């Protein structure tokens, strides 16, 4: 019997952990292949590939982001392969199981919850006597009737074989995100999250975990994303794992979900002192800073302690942080969410993701939806359309904010410019992103694509339209950000270059002959005139750049600056900029 385990990933770079766990457990007894696609792949291409593989059984791992596309694939598969057995599993179909069996007549079985043992026993029954009533954790059909068996006890994790050592995965390890679990379960009870349903946390043996990670690193893995719901719930375990990864990272990057307000000071101190820059990334779910909201959804959170953790990690300069917010939680209206957004943005995360509440099947909040007058999408991802305190009109506005937040802040295309705007020109970060998002949609830009240059010209258009002061200064910061956004010397710019050729040549000559006028660091580059012509861009800014970046008022930054940006002069191939004060300002320094 040939079995194919498949999933539709969000992107090609992601590997599915769930189907690898099933294969690892059952491959000793069955011929199992993995088949991964993306939700962007044409349905007929997926069906054609699965058809040509000629399986007897095809299983699909289902999530809110792939269920509807998966259903399209299943319905066509059953038309062209009527004898094939279709099995579904995963969090999206593990709740309201009868609903799924009734909605999807082409599905033969659903594996509910943790799947290794259930899936293996199901394959044995398909190949054998087909006594499915012996299989706990299974939903199946008996004529027209849907039978849902009782759940299966949780597996002993240390009896499960490793899903990380398939030889066929090795060639692509360096090109894909490797998902890795050191534990299962969550200690918290947040009512909007599926993880709250599984009580308690179970761990894989730490020595086995270390051995699997070493195997992945030695075979070329570049990014390992830990899927543990709270990686740092056990202080000693987390500290031992952090130590191990620091000692053995080999250039691999590791991403974790942590709960920041329970991070112990000694762990923070260890990371601040020992973590190599860029090797760790932390994802922190803040969701809301509104205490009544957090209390209602049973989310324990001490924002003061969380802030202290985030600030200390940021101060170390070694670990990027991704903070999450959820718009639409109970009691969180537009104004309180504005405060939540500004509270979290003030922490300066490298990324701030604004998500919208999803009424996931099986969660307490979905069961209580009527209490808060929630309306939401009938099909996945079940995103809310409104509540008693957040009408659809406010959700639409927040969607506009989210759009420009992703394009500008999270993409880090204009860090210097945005920092100035949010500190000097707008009441708060929220107000900047909201006003810009409203303008963006008003121009119809959400309907068309954009190049990098468009992002700069569109921001300039927005700022000019509202009569923003100090546009010369803001445009100068935008030029700096534009130069720093290129790996190689840019071939074009989005503004009119006004420097005379003779002035440009004079500056190049001065920089080559007197690099010490700029800085000792610039002098160490030992760049000739030819080097500068090839690798440098120059721009005269009508203000003192370093003073503006230090946070002084425009009045105290009068003068001119020669901005010199150099490319291809360091190992990481990142541009570096230098400044040379000009005119009267130069005499004052």
UniProtKB/TrEMBL annotation:
CDD domains the record matches: Radical_SAM, radical_SAM_B12_BD
Family matches, as Pfam families: B12-binding (PF02310), DUF4080 (PF13311), Radical_SAM (PF04055)
Keywords: Iron, Iron-sulfur, Metal-binding, S-adenosyl-L-methionine
High-level lineage: Bacteria, Bacillati, Bacillota, Bacilli, Bacillales
Biological source species: Paenibacillus polygoni
Highest taxon of source: Bacteria
UniProt domain B12-binding: residue ranges: 1-133
Cofactor: [4Fe-4S] cluster
Radical SAM core domain: residues covered: 172-402
The protein's name: B12-binding domain-containing radical SAM protein
InterPro entries reported in the protein's UniProt record: BchE-like, Cobalamin-bd, Cobalamin-bd_sf, DUF4080, Elp3/MiaA/NifB-like_rSAM, Methyltransferase_Class_B, rSAM, rSAM_horseshoe
SUPFAM superfamilies on file: Cobalamin (vitamin B12)-binding domain, Radical SAM enzymes
